[in-house]
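Appendix B. Extra example for self-study. Work through it before the problem class; the solution is given directly after the inputs so you can check yourself.
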Amino acid sequence: MTKSVEGADVLADQAARAGTHDVKVAASKVSVFYGEKQALFDVTIDIPARQVMAFIGPSGCGKSTFLRCINRMNDTIDICRVTGSIEIDGANVYDAKIDPVLLRARVGMVFQKPNPFPKSIYDNIAYGPRIHGKAKAGSEMDTIVEASLRRAGLWNEVKDRLKEPGTGLSGGQQQRLCIARAIAVNPDIILMDEPCSALDPIATAKVEELIDELRERYTIVIVTHSMQQAARVSQRAAFFHLGHLVEEGATEHMFTNPSDRRTQDYITGRFG
Amino acid sequence: MSATTLLAIVLTLSLIGYLWGRANAAALKKSGIGMHSIPAYHGYFVALSCGIPAFLLVLVWIAAESTVIDRLILAGLPSYVTDGIEGSRMSLILSEIKSVAGGRIFGTPDQAILDAAARYNVLRGTASLAMVVCALAAAIAGMAFAGSRLSAEFRARNSVDGIIRWGLIVCSILAILTTLGIILSLVIESLAFFSRVPVLSFLFGMEWSPQTAMRADQVAAEGAFGAVPVFWGTIFISAIAMFVALPVGLFSAIYLVEYANGTVRSLVKPLLEILAGIPTIVYGFFAILTVAPFIREWGVAMGLSVASNSALAAGGVMGIMLIPFISSFSDDAISAVPQSLRDGAYALGATKAETVRQVLLPAALPGIVGGVLLAVSRAIGETMIVVMAAGLTATLTANPLEGVTTVTVQIVTLLIGDTEFDSPKTLAAFGLGLVLFLSTLALNVVALQVVKRYRERYE
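Solution. Structure tokens for the complete assembly:
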């Protein structure tokens, strides 16, 4: 049992009780409205722990919207309204007891465009642990920074210039810096919103390799436009179309033998 | 014929030129010849070639005419009138001649003056007739020149473009020349001042009491021109103003950009901008009628002695004036920070305040600093509020409840009323003005550099 006060961090408590639960995220009847417009219709899906789940589908199909529901990033949009429930380790993240700030420390996110803060490489990584009080400044923080950068496969490239601004790195390095930044707060889940769409093929290959390694420790959900990428990195895939979850299953199975006509059309490139 | 009628005639000629040029080109086009430019451009070319030389000629003529005539008149005066007279006395004679020429005769003028007045009238008549002739000649010559170049292959489009380019160059040069003229006049008067009062004793002197004797027989103080207390007053009041404006402006900008929803924002932002539209003299009323008495009563209640025109009242109200300035600059700077940085911070579990303090403000800092520097330079140059609410005596004090004076207040008081431009008292105003101008110029240059660097980062 964790020593946290009852109710302070419901998710941490739940995670400790749940242990290695098979289903990490269980969404049930999730609908999202932007003002009057409904963007997502009754999505129900289970996301397994320590695997890579890929969300695929044409632009505007709601896959990013659903991804942003998992860490409640949609809260930052005024007109956005979410119904239904999303349970992480059995606790509904839309419950009043859940503090979105703590939720986001457990559910990290990596964005389409690398967005390092205009700070040094070191401070970019140290930002999360610092605001959550996870480490004291000094050697404890140095350890976290080094471990995060190593896990993101960036340590050898930047260890001599930790004080230089993170914005000075190349695009691929910036994206791995952002992944390291997310890892530094020690999340359970990492959400990735088209993490390679702004990168060249070599940088993309590096990030995909990294995703495959991270699967050992983290549950990863990745939104991607690239079929090949989904096939390369994911174990399970979900196909979204016009705000509906069309089908979901093992990636290999879905790509070779889709059950829905729309999935087949999309995968074979007939639309999208 | 007045210059206005002449300009109207030139304009009409240009219009005729336009119609002629266009008709000419249209006829060419109709006959099936391939044209380089459309007929309207041929028209524009003729109109501009006709109007611009005549217009410029009239402008130069009007500027030069009176000087030339004055010279001619004075040169023609018999030596007994002009001997031993120069400078201002000469211009008195000249104005007497002009008033006689205008029919306003006082007393019995000298015969030489009467002759000169008659000659003056003749010269004026000849000059204005000559101007009309020359201007019309220029217009017609321009039109003829343009007409000779018109042909199917003539690149009227490019030529018109070239003319427009020169017009734009002339406008920008005018703006720069005006600035140079202002600086020059300031520098010349300041040099006159510094020839009477040494630069070093002006810049570093600790005593300011510019009251000097107006006439030689008056008994008065010698006058002391140490500008330090005056500049201290400006710096002190500006500092108080920034102390008010910086937190309020910056924090309201943060609220509006990061916290307020659309309704509040659309309501509060225009209200804040109303502050920017209030004339400074109204701020001055507010300072002397509301803020100063309030501070005084509050000070009395606390057992403090408060001057009726305390630095706190003037500086505080000036700060209120600067709030929209700071807030709109900070608003722009914070809004310009990419949304992706906000998302990045929120996704790590940062609260709004943490995101603002650790991510947005550092990223927006150059823009905010630029805005603050511009606000400081406005505070330093601000005149009306301090003229109404700040004191007149130059005191070196760090107590905001005492009255201090500022550079702009001193310039105003030095130049108001009967002044003569050869006493150090009046000339001191230009010395102050020059130093003030140089310091705000330096601040503006630095501020614009900072703002420019920040623009390059995001756009």
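Self-check: Chain B touches chain A at residues 261-262, 338, 340-351, 354, 358-359, 362-363 (CB under 8 Å). If your reasoning did not lead you there, revisit section 3.
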